[in-house]
Amino acid sequence: MKEQEKETIKIPAVALRGLTIFPDMMIHFDLSRKKSIMAVEQAMMGDQRLFLITQKDPNQVDPNMDGVFRVGTIVLIKQVSKLPNNIVRVLVDGICRASLLEFLENAEYLEAYIEEIPVETMESDTTETQAMLRHIQELVEQYCRYYPKIEKTMAIHLKEVTSLERMVNQTILNMPLHYTKKQIILEALELKNQYEILADILFNEIEIAKIRTELTDKLKGRVEKNQKEYLLREQLHYIRQELGEEDAFSDADQFEKELIKIKASKEVKERIKKEITRFRSISGSSAESAVARGYIETLLELPWDKVSKDNMDMNQVEELLNQDHYGLDQVKERILEFLAVRSLTNHGESPILCLVGPPGTGKTSIAKSVATALNKKYVRICLGGVRDEAEIRGHRKTYVGAMSGRIATGLKQAGVRNPLVLLDEIDKVGSDQRGDTSSALLEVLDSEQNSKFRDHYVEIPLDLSEVLFIATANSVSKIPRPLFDRMEIIEVSSYTANEKFHIAKKHLIGKQLKKNGLHENQLTMSDASIKKIIQCYTRESGVRETERKIGQACRKVAREILQSGKISVKINSNNLNKYLGKEKYLLDKANTVDEIGIVRGLAWTSVGGDTLQVEVNMMPGKGDIELTGQLGDVMKESALTGISYIRSISKDYSIPIDSFKENDFHIHIPEGAVPKDGPSAGITMATALLSAITGRKVKAEIAMTGEITLRGRVLPIGGLKEKILAAKTAGIKTVLVPEANKKDIDEIPKEITTGIEIIYVETMNEVVKHAFVKEEEKTSDN
User: Cβ neighbours of residue 499 under 8 Å, at least 6 residues apart?
Assistant: First the structure.
């Protein structure tokens, strides 16, 4: 029945921003929106009643039903005053709550259908009502103790209040609460609910005030202490100035002077200036002062817009590169291409090169030579064993001992934003619980992203687009794939004996003479002695060990000159062992006699190419296969594949089927202490097995490399240059190579392939045809 008695009212309405009106509340507010002013005028022409509703978002210009709360207040307009700038001030008196049903379509002002909400009252003389009233009064008194200014206003309005409803309304009126909290109380229809909500708000406000007071007291004590220290320090500063013992400018003043000198964008300078201003306000004795000082010094030392001028003379660059390094043609060619593009475009995107090759082949030293040739600053960052992501991106400066990452530090060290940065050993970066270092490098090495590289410590984006990055690695397989895709790979292969000879003669001897205090006329080394060092005292892909041996000879000569009084010493192949001792390595020469079950294979190692002999013995047994010589899993699988292939073609070679059941096979590769693995010995082992089973001899001067399949196909392999070089060193005359590797042979220098007959094979039938001694040759030998 009560629902039917409710009356729907059509009334002008105003949406308030950040303000909630209650019944029994007399308040004035200002209106500036045209619709709101028209609504007030419309109400004044009627019964002076107006409906006030609160907006959910104060910034909304023209609110709709979704933009306002559903419960508001019907008020009576008491006074309307016009102010300058088309502002109207309205004084209203709250009458009762009302629920918004809908807004009417009216272009001139806001008009709404509303429904009055009768609030359930409570008898004022009951014990429960009195208890609620006194509880609110006690909470208000506690609240006022923390806010003396509010206490005067609230004391006047609440002193004589005996009604719980009026007490709730007046308390809300005089408390500086957020309009959303007031709205919650306004929407509570039962007085008891209103009391509970208000009591909860008051209790929370009192607790907040308590904590705020405690914090204020602590802060006040600290400020007083800091003020005292500041005054004493200022007095000390003045005394030192008078005595001439201290510079007249503070650190902050010095920072501002340096800020004027640096080349940087407006945004960067504003950020640094902001940090300097903040530094001024920090006490010099606090730990934060040291952190801020270090941060500002780092920002001032970074080369924001400072660049060095590159050497644009291509002929001069080429001459300098050839002067410092023998060989490495691909690297030199790519640098000259980069310089040519830079000359034509006046900018050109800096390439990200990755030099991949065995140790000692000059990867690191060529980077320094490139920097010298291009007139760039040189920075070397060694990434070997780096596991912490912060080493690249830096630490957050909030941490104790925070510092910038290696990239930002490298730029600071270079002093320009376009240096040459060498990322050494990029294939040896790791990851652990402190982050993935290789992932952190992705942004550094991506030309699309590194113009806005963000170091965690610096925070301001750094432009790395003009940095010439050169990375080095020993193996492509160990470089994470995402990093690999962002770099231009240049293979730096092993040096030939001839290249090592020229490098030693042109660079290493002079370097070691200077290092050991000798002059050119005090020590001379014959060409034969240099070649003997390379062949008999070293076994490497680069020239590091060669340089060490030359250095060893220089030290012996230096001692000999001082002790014996000799003026000069000449080292030749005959007296070399006097300075370097006995020969360390013997050349693994090709066999001179054709044998059964022995085949020469070619292998790639981390220090270059090598030859290895595969030996197979067949003996009475029960079909077991023994593999020795510390073979890896892949090599064992190749041996088993070879056995399976030979069994499948046994009829072609008139091999009895029982041979595989009645005999054991032992495959051995000498130098058992050296681990060996890889598929490239597949055809070598298959040929040796077939030779042992059929009793046919294999040519002594032949070597081979290639992977075998179950059907006898020969698949391509890698490291061909090093393998051919090893074959030439061993005196091999003929080398069998997979047909698919023909394109790789074309890229090998002529000085390596000269004197070697290279035969391309696709199947094991072709291998056998070239490797086995022909029947007539075998007969003539007998």
Answer: 326, 327
The tokens of 725 are what? Answer: 């070089």
> Of the candidates 405, 404, 390, which has an alpha carbon nearest to the alpha carbon of residue 435?
390
The answer to whether the CB of 75 falls within 8 A of the CB of 26 is no
User: What is the tens place of the pLDDT at every residue in 363-394?
Assistant: 888 888 888 888 889 999 888 877 777 888 88
User: Rounded to the nearest 5 degrees, what angle is found at the Cα of 235, between the Cα atoms of 233 and 240?
Assistant: 90
* Average pLDDT, consecutive stretches of 10 residues, N- to C-terminus, the chain (782 residues): 62 89 86 88 88 88 85 90 89 89 82 82 72 81 76 64 76 79 82 82 83 80 74 68 52 82 87 84 72 86 87 84 78 82 74 84 84 88 81 80 85 88 86 73 82 86 87 85 86 78 88 90 90 85 88 91 87 89 74 84 74 89 86 87 89 84 88 72 90 89 91 88 82 89 83 85 91 64 44
User: CA separation (Å) from 203 to 53, 136, 140?
Assistant: 27, 10, 9
Q: Establish whether 680 is a catalytic residue.
A: yes
Query: CA-CA distances (angstroms) from residue 387 to 334, 432, 437, 566?
Result: 31, 6, 6, 54
Residues 6+ apart with CB under 8 A from 294: none
Q: Which among 350, 404, 680, 691 is annotated as catalytic?
A: 680
Active-site position among 500, 549, 721, 723 = 723
Task: Report how far residue 166's alpha carbon sits from residue 22's, in angstroms, rounded to the nearest whole number.
Answer: 10
Over residues 270-304, the pLDDT tens digits come to 888 888 888 877 766 677 778 888 888 888 888 88
Q: What does the block give as tokens for 246?
A: 């201290």
Under DSSP, is residue 308 helix (H, G, I), strand (E, B) or coil?
coil
How far is it, in rounded angstroms, from Cα 90 to Cα 571?
A: 111
| Strand bridging mode 707-708 / 71-83 | unpaired
User: Among residues 418, 422, 407, 429, which one has the least CA distance to residue 363?
Assistant: 422
Contact of 279 with 296, CB cutoff 8 Å: yes
723 is catalytic: yes
Angle (nearest 5°) at CA 722 between 716 and 723: 55
State the Cα–Cα distance between residues 377 and 243, nearest whole angstrom: 44
The gap from C-alpha 140 to its chain's centroid, in whole angstroms, comes to 58
* Entry field: residues in the chain: 782
Separate counts of helices (H) and strands (E) for the chain: 30, 26
Paired tokens of 499: 């290249």
> Per 3-state DSSP, what percentage of the chain is helix, strand, and coil (rounded to 5)?
45, 20, 35
